[in-house]
Amino acid sequence: MAKRRRLLMSMSELHGGAKFALERIVFFSDAVFAIAITLLVLEIEVPHLPPDAPVHEYWAELGRLIPNFLAFVLSFLVIGRFWLSHHQIFSRVTHFDVALVWPNLLYLLAIGVMPFTTAFVAAGHNTFVPALCYNLNLLLTGILAWFLMFWIEHKGLAVPGPDNRYSGSPGVIAAAALAVALAFVIPQISQFAMVTLPLWRLVFHRKGAA
């Protein structure tokens, strides 16, 4: 009850230009996330076959696109997870600071690159260089997400709470770092390291870091 009261009091202090500035950051960020997710599917080229093409050719073309769809699903879930973290932290932000803009822009920059690395890893059939670029993109995004959330807490811009501990970013960083390491050994399945995210979150939660 006390935490809820502090949140309401802090929110009441956020008005006028400060409130508008914070809303612009949130709306702009949501737009970047939405565009990035949309671009993921636009990178999948629709098969172009003549109307009289036999059915098996259609299935063959769709089969050729399986790596693209797998990359799309993975990146969709990853960007969705980053958006959720962003949403969780900004739902607690109660004060505006112009210094918040640049850490947020850097975070969004890494998100904006993800459609390219996703298309690259799909077109390159998850070989070493495309897989490494994609995994490094994940790692950089996780680090920038952590930095943004650390910056917000360091500046005292958010109401503290049990859910406000970097929103699992250390777990994302650990899983992405594992994916980068696997790219040097078995790049074709290196992205599967991201399925270890719940395990890493559990580890950091027990350590009081998530």
Share in helix? over 70%
- Rounded to the nearest angstrom, the distance between the terminal CA atoms is 23 Å
What's the total number of strands? Answer: 0
Q: What shape does the CA trace take? A: globular
SSE arrangement, N to C: HHHHHHHH
Give me the Rg, rounded. Answer: 20 Å
Give an overview in words.
This protein is mostly helical. The chain is 71% helix and 0% strand. The chain contains eight helices and no strands.
Provide a compact summary of the structure.
The protein contains eight helices and no strands. By secondary structure, it is mostly helical.
Supply the key terms.
mainly alpha, about 70% helix, about 0% strand, disordered N terminus
Summarize the SSE layout with pairings.
Elements (H helix, E strand, L loop, with lengths): L1 H12 L2 H27 L12 H10 L1 H25 L10 H23 L4 H27 L14 H15 L13 H10 L4
Helix pairs in contact: 2-4, 2-5, 4-5, 4-6, 5-6, 6-7, 7-8
